Amino acid sequence: MVMANEHAQLRLNLPDAYRRWRAGRLGRITDALEETLIMELVGSPAGLRILDVGCGDGALATALAGRGADVTGVDADPHMLAAARARAEAMGLAVAFVEGDIHALPFPDASIDAVVAVTILCFVPDAHHAVREMARVLKPGGRMVIGELGRWNLWAAKRRIKGWLGSATWRAAKFRTAQELERLVTSAGLDVTATRGAIFYPPCGSAAALLAPYDPWLGRRTTMDAAFLAIAGRKPVQSADQS
């Protein structure tokens, strides 16, 4: 059993771990590819009210705000929220960050233009409920973009081994296929509009530098062996004769 103080220490260390990851070549290249893909699926964010669920240290939330979106980041971890607020303040961006549970988002029905959730569903106990909750707050015609860690690739294999060796983070993670993520989206009543892959190289900085230029081309054509999967869904607009 993982003790409570181990969980507390893990939370305290996460912002530093993110910083170390982004300081390396592999982290910089990988994060840039993933962010570019998520931004492409979100579309033009200017003027939209966007909810970043599981916002972590605010990297995506501030990127969206920098492009003119009205962004609110939600996370269950106050340490991550503190790091996110510090990031937004340093960048001179007005981003709201609130503590909340993905299974019970503190927002009214149909109040959000777009919802993004990146590498969070693999860590929540009830992903079906979480996606339905994100769909609840989404306006009709609004877009949901989910980015998740793919199930069958070298990155996932490495993480599974870490979990077997005692990592609390990766022992609890659940990796999914593109088809499983699509089913999560459709079961929440949304129409899938795009399914994309990214990060087709192994977890190695030199491989990332060599293969990153080809990654977007591959991601538009297949999700096989992709370490990162992105699904976009649209909430149907109810017609007058259905109301």
Describe the structure.
It is a single chain. The chain is an alpha/beta fold and 243 residues long. The protein has one domain (4-235): Vaccinia Virus protein VP39 (Rossmann fold), CATH 3.40.50. It is 45% helix and 20% strand. It is built from 10 helices and 7 strands. Strands 3-2-1-4-5-7-6 form a 7-stranded mixed sheet, sandwiched between helices. Helix 3 links the parallel strand 1 and strand 2 (70-75). Helix 1 (4-23) crosses helix 2 (25-42). The longest helix has 20 residues, at 4-23. The model is unreliable at 1-12 and 239-243 (pLDDT under 50).
Notable traits:
243 residues; disordered N terminus; alpha/beta; 7-stranded mixed beta sheet; Rossmann fold
Summed up, what is this model?
The chain has 243 residues and is an alpha/beta fold. It is built from 10 helices and 7 strands.
- What is the CATH-assigned architecture? 3-Layer(aba) Sandwich
Describe the biggest sheet?
7 strands, mixed
Helix-strand sequence: HHEHEHEEHEHHHEHHE
Name the CATH homologous superfamily: Vaccinia Virus protein VP39
The Rg value, from CA coordinates, equals 17 Å
CATH class: Alpha Beta
Q: In one word, what is the shape?
A: globular
Write the CATH fold name: Rossmann fold
Strand content: 15-25%
